[in-house]
Amino acid sequence: MGTAQQDKVPFYEKSALGVGALAAFFGYAGVSILAYPVYNMMLGVSAAWIGVALMIPRLWDAITDPVMGKISDNFHSRLGRRKPFIVGGAISMGILFALLWHVPTGWSDQLKITYFIVMQLLYFTAYTVFSVPYNALTYEMTPDYNERTRVMAFCAFFHKTGELLGGWMLPIATALGIWLVADAQELNMSGVQAMGWIVGVVIMLGIGSMPGLIVKERFKKKTQVQQKVKLWDSIKGSCSSPAFLILVAIIVLNTLSGVLAMGIDQYLLVYFMNNGDMAAGLIQKGLLTSGYGIVGFASIPVITWLAGKFGKKGSLFFVYGLMVFGGIMKWFIFTPGHPIFYIGKVAIDPIILIDPLLCGPMWVAVKIMLASMMADICDEDELKHDQRREGMFSAVFSWIEKMVVSLAYLGTGFALALAHFNPELGGAQAPETFTRMRLFLAGAPALTAIFAIVALFFYPITAKRAANTRQQLEDRRGTV
User: In CA terms, which of 3, 20, 198, 428 is 20 to 30 Å from 469?
Assistant: First the structure.
C-alpha cells in the first residue's frame, strides 16, 4: 500500500526529529565514554567504584522513567504533551553534563565519587525528562505503517552520526587541554571541562531542543479528552502486550551480545592477532569501528527499502540471518595469519572488514525497525484501552534497554574471567584462553540472532493488521 500524502511527514520535521537522536546518543553514552578516563586515569578513583557509580543511576531510572512516562502522557499545554519537556530536559541536561566534569581535583577519592554519583542522578533525571517524551514523540509522528519506518530512518542516521562523533570526544578533549594548558601533553581536566561545555551546550541544549521547537504533535488535541493514564495500569498494560514483550526480548538479546562482542574483539585484536602489540591492535580496532560506521550509514536506505518491500519482520529476518552467518565467520576473521599490507608503518588487516559487512546492518535495522514497530504497538494499545500511552511504552522500553547495557558491560568482564585472561601475560596467554574468548565472540551474536529469529516468528503485527487497526481507530475517534 502506498503512503497517502496527508500521512507523509515533511522533510524538515523528519530532520528536526532525527537530530534529537544525536542529542539522545550523547545524553546516554557521553558519560560512559568519559567516566573511566576522567575519574580513574586522571583523578585516580578506583575503577571498581566507578563501575558501581555508573550502575546506581539505572536503579534511579527504574523510578523516574515510568513516572516521566505517566507525566508526559497526562500533560496538556498549548504546546502539547511532549514538546515542553523535550526543550526543558535538553536545557537542563546540557548544563548538568558540563558540570559532571567540574569536580574539585583536591578532594579525596570518597568526595570525588560522591560528587560523581550525585551529579549523575541529577543529570540522568534531566536526561529522562528529555528522552522519554522524545521517544514517545517519534512513535506518534504518522499513522502510516511504512512512513513510520522512513521517520525512524532519519533518527537512525543521526544516532549513527553520534556513534562516530562520540569516538572523537577524548582526542578532542586532549587537543583542547594542550591548547588551554600550554605545557600539558596529555588529557587534562581543562580539556575535559571544555569538551563538556561544547557537548552540553551545542549538542544537548542546542540540537536537543530542536524536536521540541519545530516538530508538530499529532495527538495534542485528541488526548485532552482521554482518561488519565495511570502508572501501574499502564505498566501492566505494556507488559501484557505479546508484541511489546517480543520487542523487549529482542533488544535484550541484541544488547547483551553486542556489548560482549564489542569488548572481546578488542582484546583479541591486541593480544591474539598482534601478540600484545597494543598500538597495532588499537589501530585495527579503529579501522573496524570505522567499518561499522560506514556500513551503518550505507545500510539505512537498504533497510528502509527492504521494510517497504518485505515488511518489517521480513527485513529483520534478513539481517538476523546475515548476523548468524557473521557470528560464525568471527571465528575465522579474528585469528592471526591473514595477509597484511602497510600504509607507512601502520599494518592493515583487510579481512577484519568482512565483520562489519556481515554484522553491521543488523544494528541499523534494529534501531529503525523496533522504533517503527513500537509505533504500531501504540496503535493496538489505543484500540484496546482507548488511550494514547506512548510515554509509558517509551519509559518501560528505555529503562530495560539502559539496564541491559549496564549489565552487559559487567558481562564483558565476566567473559574475560571465564576465559582466564591475565593482562600481565600480554600475548602469551594460554591457547585455551584465546579459544574461549573466540567462542564468546562468535557464539554470542550467532546464538542471540537465532533466538531473535525465533521470537520474530511470534510477532503478530503485519502491514495488513496495522492497516486494519488504523481503520478501526479512525472509525471510532476520527482521523488525527
Answer: 20
Pairing type for strands 346-348 and 341-343 reads antiparallel
Beta bridge partners, 347, equal 342
Nearest partner of 237 among 227, 225, 223, judged by Cα: 227
Residue 240, CA distances (Å) to 69, 248, 393, 455 in order: 17, 12, 12, 16
pLDDT digit string, tens, across residues 187-233? 678 888 999 999 999 999 999 999 999 999 887 667 666 677 777 77
Please give the full DSSP string across 89-111, using - where no structure is assigned: HHHHHHHHHHHTT---TTS-HHH
The three cell numbers of residue 374 are 513500537
Q: What is the average pLDDT across 260-280?
A: 77
Closest CA to 477 of 288, 251, 276, 221: 221
Residue environment code for 115-136, b if the CB has 16+ CB neighbours within 10 A, otherwise e:
bbbebbbbbbbbbbbbbbbbbb
**Chain-centre distance for alpha carbon 423:** 29
**For residue 245, what are the CA distances in angstroms to 64, 235, 337?**
21, 12, 44
Tell the CATH topology of 11-217.
Growth Hormone; Chain: A; (1.20.1250)
Burial of residue 56 (CB within 10 Å: 0-12, 13-18, 19+) is middle
Q: How confident is the model at residue 302 (pLDDT cuts 50, 70, 90)?
A: very high
Q: Give the separation between CA 398 and CA 58, rounded to whole angstroms.
A: 11
Domain ranges for the chain, please list them: 11-217, 227-467
Query: pTM for this one?
Result: 0.85
Helix (H) or strand (E) holding 249, with range, is helix 242-267
Q: Name the DSSP letter for residue 241.
A: -
The candidate with the shortest Cα–Cα distance to 292, out of 244, 356, 220, is 356
Q: Could you tell me which residues come within 8 angstroms of residue 371 by beta carbon, excluding any fewer than 6 positions away?
A: 135, 138, 139, 152, 155
HEC per residue, 360-375: HHHHHHHHHHHHHHHH
In the 8-state DSSP scheme, what is residue 479? -
Where does 227-467 sit in CATH, by number? Answer: 1.20.1250.20
344 phi-psi bin (left φ>0, alpha ψ -120 to 50, beta other): left
Domains 11-217 and 227-467 share a fold: yes
**Contact between residue 247 and residue 125 where contact means Cβ atoms under 8 Å apart:** no
